[in-house]
Amino acid sequence: MERLGVRSLYLALGDWQSAPGGSLATRMASALREAIETSVLSSGTVLPAERSMARDLGVSRSTVTAALQLLKADGYLEARHGSGTIVTAGMVPGSEPRRDRSVIDLAESSPGDARALPVVGIDLEALLRSGSASGYTPAGLPSLRRSVADRFTADGLPTDPSQIVITNGAQHALALCFAQFAEPGDCVLLDEPTYPGLIDLLEARGLVPIAVPRHSGAIDGGLLRTLAESSGATLAYLQTLVHNPTGLTGDDDALDRLADSIGDLSLTVVEDVVLADLRFDHRRPSPLAARMMGSSAAGTAAQVIVVGSVSKLGWGGLRIGWLRADVEQVDQMLRSRRADDLGSSIPSQVISTAVLAEFSVLAESRQRTLSRRAALACQFLETSFPTWRFTPPNGGLSIWVELPSSHAAGAVVEAAAAAGVLIATGASSSVTTSGAQHIRICFDRPEPQLREGLQRLARAVDQMTDRWSTVNPS
Questions:
Q1: Is the pLDDT score of 464 beyond 90?
Q2: How far apart, in whole angstroms, are the C-alpha atoms of residue 80 and residue 75?
Q3: What was the pLDDT predicted at 39?
Q4: In this structure, what DSSP letter does residue 115 have?
Q5: Region 200-213: what's the mean pLDDT?
Q6: Disulfide-capable partner of 440 in 214, 328, 424, 454 (CB 3.0 to 4.6 Å)?
Q7: Are 460 and 418 in contact (CB under 8 A)?
Q8: How far is residue 54's CA from residue 17's CA, in Å, rounded to a whole number?
Q9: Is residue 113 part of a domain?
Q10: Rounded distance, CA 77 to CA 85, Å?
Q11: Using CA atoms, how far apart are residues 410 and 167, in angstroms rounded to an integer?
């Protein structure tokens, strides 16, 4: 049996004390559970004595004891006389089988779990006061609409709650926009590469994507204008502030130029700002919609609908997003929405309202955590894969990596999956062939899990390269 040393313990737990929510014991138990479920700590590993753990981690022994008791009750640990506390794959009698998480998912670009959410309390009275007695609120809870409107106003886009529609996540908000403003066969302009969920949505709606390649990470307003005029497209989807999948960010000058370039077009822009709160330099440029109101383009044909959510800031499981539009557009989309659903979950909306009340603290915590995880991933990639090319992200949850010609993206993804780590092909984020030689790696995972996933990727690529060299000797 392997005994866990101090350094290995630190690496396995990661930055567990700064994780939001719960007592120190709960957070320690969560970090250990994550390490066990992802095989960072393997079955049979012997943990240090409780007194040693408390001393090395700088916490009380009672904290360590409470954390270990939680894991023993769930069957993750077992106390054996003469050996100490041991990681076990066994289960306590009568307990539910725990899910297999030996495969590490670095493909899905979203928070790995709900740990980023602040601790919020909900009682029956809060639900009863939250809106319609029936629970049906097609436009959303008044309190949440007001909170979202206040966030837009703080970002330089004056907004009234009547301009907000609460949706079942950002994907639902996008679906409402495309249902309202596009017909099957219509062309839609989009920045390339793009959000993978958008490609699925366009395909389902029978819409024709027209790629607008980014130049040095920025949206080229001149090219966008040319493509709009030549294609006759009247709808565009743009990620203006923080871009998925590259993690690159928009600056004021580029956004002002974009507003000036397209302001007089008969164009409806769906502006996706889902990742805007996850910018590592803590800057918050105004969205394109605000610049269109205040620029020389004001009063002209182009209009902007803004889409956001709590999914990347907090947790996708809440399924709460929103859109901001003119009141007339809001009324049109609500009429369409009532044919399909009658509103978003009231409990999720109440939780989201509480989350936005803690916005500044939560955003700063997420930015700090993601910046640290991105640095870890970038350093690993630079050291382990010197021929792989990428620009370190300044925000978001992912790294967009260009592979050398000797490494086919599909082969790398398959080899990684066989080694127990999932990554995404660039083709899933592209409507052209430009993503064929790319992969996307999500770094928003606890550091021990992220490190283990990247190590599995490195081993998989090494083995793949060795096999290729054997089959094709120089």
A1: no
A2: 13
A3: 74
A4: T
A5: 92
A6: 424
A7: yes
A8: 13
A9: no
A10: 7
A11: 35
Where does 256-365 show beta strands of DSSP type E?
268-272, 303-309, 321-324
What is the number of structural domains in the chain? 3
| Whether residue 281 sits in one domain with residue 385 | no
Two tokens at 343? 């509103």
- What is d(CA 352, CA 359) in angstroms, rounded to the nearest whole number? 10
**Tokens, residue 213:** 């390649």
Domain's final residue, options 302, 325, 359: 359
Report whether pLDDT(334) > 90: yes
Could you report how far apart the first and last alpha carbons of the chain are, in Å?
43
The verdict on 332 and 377 lying in the same domain is: no
What tens digit of pLDDT does each residue of 69-103 get?
A: 878 877 888 888 777 888 886 444 444 444 445 78
User: What is the C-alpha radius of gyration for the chain, rounded to an integer number of angstroms?
Assistant: 24
Give dist(CA 259, CA 291) in Å, integer: 6
The CATH number assigned to the domain holding 54 equals 1.10.10.10
Of the CA atoms within 13 Å of residue 104, those in its CB half-sphere come to: 28
Mean pLDDT score across all residues of the chain: 86
Element (H, E) at 191: strand 187-192
Location of structure tokens 């996706």: 272
Report the pLDDT averaged over residues 344-349: 89
Res 190: pLDDT: 96
* 86 SS3 class: strand
Full DSSP string of 193-226: S--HHHHHHHHHHT-EEEEEE-BTTB--HHHHHH
Average pLDDT over residues 315-335: 93
Mean pLDDT of 54-64: 82
User: Which of 191 and 63 is assigned the larger pLDDT?
Assistant: 191
- Bridge-partner residues for 236, per DSSP? 189, 269
Nearest Cα residue to 310 out of 182, 204, 173, 187: 173
Q: What integer pLDDT is reported at residue 94 of this predicted model?
A: 47
Residue type, 371: S
